[in-house]
Design goal:
Rossmann fold, binds zinc ion, 3 domains
Length: 311
């Protein structure tokens, strides 16, 4: 890679100051890597941290190759119950910007920031999003509405421009292109949900993470009371889920924590509802999974819903 860069910079010097006598043969000699001068190192990338994988994807797209993103809670990770490590503290200390979701999502972030003694600016990506109330607090899962993610992207762009003004044009161009794609994604989801008969737009899900999705796109998510979400479902949980499916005449069930396939079979047999796999709520999948980016995560969920709810 270095020799490639050196080669191309020699080449541009050659092109900039052509000798009248330069022939293809001398050109070839001059650009040979053996003769290349060491190129000046590329400008260092801006070190930034994102608190969880979905946010890391947004930051990476807006920052492009001017930044180096580290994500604290990675693919398939649960940011609600994350326990930071000393390595996370060192990453924060080295960062110029730290992007967090906010809305109470990362309960561990304030302690990590003060323990790390980082001088990084802490950027709340959800700033200016209208929060949904949830019990005493607010629902943090704002990224489940694409319109909110457009606000995240604008906040990320503005923070990067401020921290690295030399990259302003690049950040603005990257953000504009992505915002355009997000507009398309939003329209795609609206159309897909519109195609589901209205009476069937109702599912049971144990993790109450889809409130923003429900509000924007019109699918009702019912989280049965008293079902544990932080452990594998028990037989009693299954009975409660079956009750909820029957009471609410739900067409499909999406459960994250049912490992035992007999439970899924029992729900299907007792209710007639389809039992779908997990929807991706709070984290991307690994790169080889079905939801390695925010856009693919949303598309995957909508496909799962469409298939389970179609008549
Ligand atoms: Zn969550």
């Amino acid at each position: 890679m270095d020799s490639l860069r050196a080669t191309s910079s020699n080449l541009s010097r050659l092109i900039g100051f052509p000798s009248r006598r330069a022939t293809l043969a001398t050109l070839a000699l001059l650009v040979s890597p053996l003769r290349a001068q060491p190129a000046p190192p590329p400008p260092p990338r801006l070190p930034v941290v994102a608190s969880f994988s979905i946010l890391g994807d947004l930051v990476r797209i807006v920052g492009g190759d001017r930044i180096d993103v580290t994500t604290i809670v990675g693919a398939n990770g649960d940011a609600h119950v994350y326990q930071p490590s000393p390595q996370d503290g060192r990453r924060l200390a080295a960062a110029k910007l730290v992007f967090v979701n906010g809305l109470g999502f990362e309960g561990w972030i304030d302690r990590l920031v003060s323990a790390s003694k980082t001088k990084a600016r802490i950027v709340t990506a959800s700033r200016a999003v209208t929060p949904r109330k949830e019990g005493e607090g607010v629902d943090p899962h704002a990224w489940q509405d694409v319109a909110n993610v457009k606000i995240y992207v604008a906040n990320i762009r503005d923070a990067l421009v401020e921290a690295d003004p030399d990259g302003a044009a690049r950040y603005k161009a990257n953000a504009a292109e992505y915002l355009h794609a997000l507009g398309g994604l939003d329209a795609e989801i609206v159309a897909a949900i519109d195609a589901i008969p209205r009476a069937r737009r109702r599912v049971v899900s144990t993790h109450d993470a889809f409130g923003y999705f429900a509000a924007r796109y019109g699918v009702e998510f019912i989280a049965p009371q008293g079902v544990s979400t932080d452990a594998e479902a028990s037989a009693r949980d299954i009975a409660r889920i079956v009750d909820a499916v029957k009471t609410h005449k739900v067409a499909a069930v999406f459960l994250e924590n049912i490992v035992d396939p007999r439970f899924a079979q029992r729900i299907a047999a007792e209710t007639g509802a389809k039992v779908g796999g997990a929807l991706y709520s709070d984290a991307l999948s690994p790169p080889d999974g079905p939801a390695p980016s925010y856009v693919r995560l949303m598309r995957f969920n909508v496909k799962q819903l469409s298939e389970a709810l179609a008549r």
